[in-house]
């Protein structure tokens, strides 16, 4: 574990125990055995630490979920059961994060955290919905948002018992148990019924990822413009560097699907040329490709 991760872990425990606003940077420093001033070499503020906590852990979770989704040896049900098990295990491993999330500490921090929490909820709902449609097929398509919401509600309560009440449950039994409950829920759905949650009602949840991708693309384009301006102030833009930056800009402004292998090649070239703001650009691109 590197120093930045140590700070994140220490802050997460304190936020869960004391609450975000009651925790000071001094206490975070003491928790991980650092001088207070040293923390500012890694994080500019307590708000930045809070944002990093959520990004760090949910990036890890969604990457693991994505890896399972690409396993062609598993059926749709096997994939989802395995993904749910990973989600449960990750939350159990990081109880402090669940405490912070469920204790509603997160939404009280700032707008960036509120937006991030909403994005995570939307990604979870869309993941559940798509998995449920893949498992149960056409018969559930009208009710997939309701089914996803009910599954999320059940899982959240069990995680609450584990993280907040410290109850010892058999983690390995939870995912198959919940999927069997979903079998019963789907079987009870009638064509004569209408769903409570429609695509229109949940439009903001369904479109949030697309909107977030657009925002991240714009951040990358803005960073490229800043790089060009800085180079121009420092004596001009070399032709090959300029072409590389322009190609990168085109990829994020014009392509329907950004080609990761091209982006990585261009980034590597710009790193070798020691172009200013390269690290900022790489961070923005890493966030774009994060699951």
UniProtKB/TrEMBL annotation:
<protein>
    <submittedName>
        <fullName>TetR family transcriptional regulator</fullName>
    </submittedName>
</protein>
<feature type="DNA-binding region" description="H-T-H motif">
    <location>
        <begin position="24"/>
        <end position="43"/>
    </location>
</feature>
<keyword id="KW-0804">Transcription</keyword>
<dbReference type="InterPro" id="IPR001647">
    <property type="entry name" value="HTH_TetR"/>
</dbReference>
<keyword id="KW-0805">Transcription regulation</keyword>
<dbReference type="GO" id="GO:0003677">
    <property type="term" value="F:DNA binding"/>
</dbReference>
<dbReference type="Pfam" id="PF00440">
    <property type="entry name" value="TetR_N"/>
</dbReference>
<dbReference type="GO" id="GO:0045892">
    <property type="term" value="P:negative regulation of DNA-templated transcription"/>
</dbReference>
<keyword id="KW-0238">DNA-binding</keyword>
<feature type="domain" description="HTH tetR-type">
    <location>
        <begin position="1"/>
        <end position="61"/>
    </location>
</feature>
<dbReference type="InterPro" id="IPR009057">
    <property type="entry name" value="Homeodomain-like_sf"/>
</dbReference>
<dbReference type="InterPro" id="IPR050624">
    <property type="entry name" value="HTH-type_Tx_Regulator"/>
</dbReference>
């Amino acid at each position: 574990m590197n120093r930045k991760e140590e700070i994140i872990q220490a802050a997460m425990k304190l936020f869960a125990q004391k609450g975000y606003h009651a925790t000071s940077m001094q206490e975070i420093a003491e928790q991980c055995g650092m001088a207070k001033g040293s923390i500012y070499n890694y994080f500019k503020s307590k708000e930045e630490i809070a944002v990093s906590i959520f990004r760090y852990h949910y990036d890890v979770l969604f990457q693991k979920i994505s890896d399972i989704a690409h396993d062609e040896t598993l059926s749709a049900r096997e994939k989802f059961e395995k993904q749910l098990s990973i989600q449960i295990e990750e939350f159990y491993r990081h109880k402090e994060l669940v405490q912070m999330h469920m204790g509603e500490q997160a939404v009280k921090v700032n707008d960036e955290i509120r937006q991030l929490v909403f994005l995570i909820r939307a990604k979870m709902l869309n993941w559940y919905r798509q998995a449920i449609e893949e498992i149960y097929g056409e018969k559930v398509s009208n009710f997939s948002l309701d089914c996803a919401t009910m599954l999320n509600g059940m899982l959240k309560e069990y995680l609450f018992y584990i993280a907040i009440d410290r109850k010892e449950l058999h983690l390995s039994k939870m995912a198959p148990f919940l999927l069997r409950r979903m079998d019963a829920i789907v079987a009870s759905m009638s064509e004569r019924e209408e769903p409570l949650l429609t695509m229109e009602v949940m439009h903001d949840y369904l479109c949030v990822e697309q909107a977030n991708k657009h925002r991240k693309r714009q951040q990358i384009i803005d960073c490229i413009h800043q790089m060009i301006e800085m180079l121009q102030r420092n004596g001009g833009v070399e032709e090959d560097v300029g072409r590389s930056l322009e190609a990168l800009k085109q990829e994020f402004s014009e392509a329907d699907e950004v080609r990761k292998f091209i982006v990585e090649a261009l980034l590597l070239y710009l790193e070798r040329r020691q172009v200013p703001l390269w690290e900022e650009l790489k961070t923005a691109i890493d966030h774009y490709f994060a699951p």
